[in-house]
């Protein structure tokens, strides 16, 4: 009788590839939501002075630039009307490249730091929630340092009109020539580093929910992984939404400015939004952000588990 051998353990490269592949598939399926949430996050209520007007300071606004979106459905209708169905996929190449690189780097470093922790920990117990969050934050910070330029380029492409939108290389050149030199590609880095708590909360919550709801289970069914991924991402999104809005503002084109001087930090952007639009404006775009997060994280974890 043949003896069935145990499958070999998956190493960091395998986990990283699985995570990146799942993330690319998930984001490709829900990309229009990503585009819509970005457009909603860089626009504000039409009262003077609006954040949108500040963002556009120094640039002649066209009728397309001034388009106001009243929610997700309205945004989709207006984008399709102005640019056609393909307008919902503007900047998708850069986005998927960014998603692949960020998630590959995250899962790779998370696997490395978690394995190192378990190897050198004095006890054999599973890491606590605080430790899981810390390991996730370290992995997320390392991933952001290497991949944020792609996020900056993608955000620029998503917030420009069809007439002004350029390819990835030309957009990168525009960023370098127009602002802080090559460091402009790392604009919003501080916000991104703070936002590492998002995947940290997501995957920390995922592990905790997995242990609580499916104790001792090593292989989850697709619907189980999807449900856990969706729940954990929704929690992380609600907690970090203000930072996401501020970061998108910093990375948009042109970057936010007040009295001709661009904001240098996400804290300045958040303060300006609160002063001129109210604190609730820090949560604009929450609907498509959560919808995207639920779908992406659910599909990602379901695919990764398989």
Please describe what this structure looks like.
The chain has 306 residues and is mainly α. The chain has helices spanning 12-29, 31-42, 51-55, 72-83, 92-120, 129-159, 168-178, 189-194, 197-213, 222-251, 266-277, 286-305, and strands at 257-258, 261-262. The chain has one domain: Mitochondrial carrier fold, CATH 1.50.40. A two-stranded antiparallel ribbon has the order 1-2. Strand 1 (257-258) and strand 2 form a beta hairpin. Helix 1 runs antiparallel to helix 5 (92-120) and helix 10 packs across helix 11. The chain is globular. The model is unreliable at 1-5 and 58-65 (pLDDT under 50). Pfam families: Mito_carr (PF00153). Solcar repeats lie at residues 10-116, 127-212, 220-306. Keywords: Membrane, Mitochondrion, Mitochondrion inner membrane, Repeat, Transmembrane, Transmembrane helix, Transport. Its main location: membrane.
Q: Give the % helix.
A: 55-70%
Largest sheet: 2 strands, antiparallel
**How many helical stretches?**
12
- What is the averaged pLDDT score? 78
Rg over alpha carbons: 20 Å
What's the CATH class, please?
Mainly Alpha
CATH architecture grouping: Alpha/alpha barrel
For the record, what is the CATH homologous superfamily label?
Answer: Mitochondrial carrier domain
DSSP strand (E) fraction?
under 5%
In total, how many domains does the architecture comprise? 1
The N- and C-terminal alpha carbons lie at a distance of: 28 Å
Unreliable residue stretches: 1-5, 58-65
Q: What is the total tally of β strands?
A: 2
- Give the SSE order as H and E letters: HHHHHHHHHHEEHH
Pfam family, one: Mito_carr
Family: Belongs to the mitochondrial carrier (TC 2.A.29) family.
GO biological process, one term: ATP transport
Protein name: Mitochondrial carrier
């Amino acid at each position: 009788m043949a003896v069935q051998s145990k499958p070999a353990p998956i190493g960091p490269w395998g986990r990283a590839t699985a995570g990146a592949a799942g993330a690319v598939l998930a984001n490709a399926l829900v990309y229009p939501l990503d585009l819509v949430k970005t457009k909603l996050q860089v626009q504000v209520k039409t009262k003077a002075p609006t954040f949108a007007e500040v963002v556009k300071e120094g640039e002649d606004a066209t009728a397309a630039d001034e388009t106001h979106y009243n929610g997700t459905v309205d945004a989709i209708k207006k984008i399709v009307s102005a640019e056609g169905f393909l307008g919902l996929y503007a900047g998708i190449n850069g986005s998927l490249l960014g998603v692949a690189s960020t998630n590959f780097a995250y899962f790779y470093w998370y696997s490395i730091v978690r394995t190192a922790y378990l190897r050198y920990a004095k006890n054999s117990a599973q890491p606590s929630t605080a430790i899981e969050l810390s390991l996730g934050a370290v992995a997320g910070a390392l991933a952001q340092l290497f991949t944020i330029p792609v996020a900056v380029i993608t955000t620029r492409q998503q917030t420009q009109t069809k007439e002004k939108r350029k390819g990835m290389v030309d957009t990168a050149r525009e960023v370098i020539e127009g602002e802080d030199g090559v460091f402009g590609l790392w604009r919003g880095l501080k916000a991104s580093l703070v936002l590492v708590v998002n995947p940290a909360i997501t995957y920390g919550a995922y592990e905790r929910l997995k242990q609580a709801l499916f104790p001792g289970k090593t292989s989850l069914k697709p619907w189980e992984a999807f449900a856990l991924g969706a729940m954990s991402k929704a929690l992380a999104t609600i907690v970090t939404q203000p930072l996401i809005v501020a970061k998108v503002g910093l990375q948009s084109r042109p970057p936010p400015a007040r009295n001709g001087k661009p904001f240098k930090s996400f804290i300045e952007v958040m303060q300006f939004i609160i002063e001129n639009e109210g604190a609730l404006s820090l949560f604009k775009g929450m609907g498509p952000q959560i919808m995207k997060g639920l779908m992406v994280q659910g599909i990602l974890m379901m695919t990764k588990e398989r």
